[in-house]
Amino acid sequence: MKRRRIRVGLRTVKTAVAIIIAMVLVEPYGATSSRLILAMLGAMAAVQPTFKESLEACVTQTVGVLFGAAAGVLLAALPMGPLTSVLLGIIFVISVYNLLPDAFSPSLPCFILVMICTDAEMAPIPYALGRIWDTAIGLGVGMLINSLVFPYDNSRQIRETADGLDRDLLLFLEDMFDGNSSLPDTDAMNKRIATLEGQLSVFANQRLLLHMRRRKRELTRYKACERKARELVSHLEVLSQLDRPGRLSEDNRRRLAACGARVEDARALDSVMEKDVVTNFHVAQILTLRHELLETLSGH
């Protein structure tokens, strides 16, 4: 089995700090176990990789607390035993949540419902309002820390993915013109593109309060890189479908050598065939797109 290292990342530290601060803020109101748990859950939920995910987590947590509190207050007012109230309440909550998107979990509303229905000495409405307040404290602390204290930025991962795409491109071209009849496929390139799309999706959801204009410019630049990379792969796919690549022109040989790619196919272009024209056209387009992609990525 592959050994894995225990890694303590920045998001882990921010989550722990958010929990502690939320618990300290709840302390003056009477730090009961349920208060601390709800403040902790709120803080944990709000510390997500992107602002959009944090906002979605706040919405799902708030809906859960409100729904659980409302269901608990309603069932506590009915003339039935606590276990019957819990049974009917959990069935009701889960049934409703099955109609909601997967991001909504019934665990939190069920927890609040059980707490309200099983404590005969509890005042249901004040308790429900208190749990809403505790959760709001946790969510607010988590959102502030996640947005303002070392906000998540995957710009480096995007650049590394683009660099990996460039390396795979040169390996593809070397394999294409290594002098044998076997042709490379574009699987590695497509995987890089999929990874780049995922990183761009994360970057696009990082709607931070600060540096919004700068990040919008960066996103536009990265999107242009993605478009050029996709166009580049389309040219590679055409080359990979040939039974054998045509002979390279001297211009394309020089350009490949300038990129650092080794070309071992020594066939001279002494006469021009259709396959040679197709090959050199797509190779020229690939090298041009590669140059444009690297320039766009560097911001020039």
Give me some keywords for this one.
single chain; mainly alpha; 71% helix; 11 helices; 2 domains
Report on this model:
By secondary structure, this protein is mainly α. The chain has two domains: 10-148; 155-298. Helix content is 71%, strand content 0%. It has helices at 10-26, 33-46, 51-76, 82-97, 107-118, 124-148, 155-176, 187-204, 212-240, 250-259, 274-298. Helix 8 packs antiparallel against helix 9 (212-240). The longest helix has 29 residues, at 212-240. The mean pLDDT is 82.
Task: Chart the SSEs and their pairings.
Elements (H helix, E strand, L loop, with lengths): L9 H17 L6 H14 L4 H26 L5 H16 L9 H12 L5 H25 L6 H22 L10 H18 L7 H29 L9 H10 L14 H25 L2
Helix pairs in contact: 1-2, 1-6, 2-3, 2-6, 3-4, 3-5, 3-6, 4-5, 7-8, 7-9, 8-9, 9-11
What is the N-to-C order of secondary-structure elements (H for helix, E for strand)? HHHHHHHHHHH
Uncertain segments are none
Structural class comes to: mainly alpha
User: What profile does the largest beta sheet have?
Assistant: none
Beta content comes to under 5%
Q: How far from one another are the termini? A: 45 Å
Oligomer: single chain
Shape: elongated
Number of strands: 0
| Total individual domains | 2
The amount of helix comes to: over 70%
What Rg is obtained from the alpha carbons, in whole angstroms? 29 Å
Report the mean per-residue pLDDT as an integer: 82
Given the structure, what is the number of helices? Answer: 11
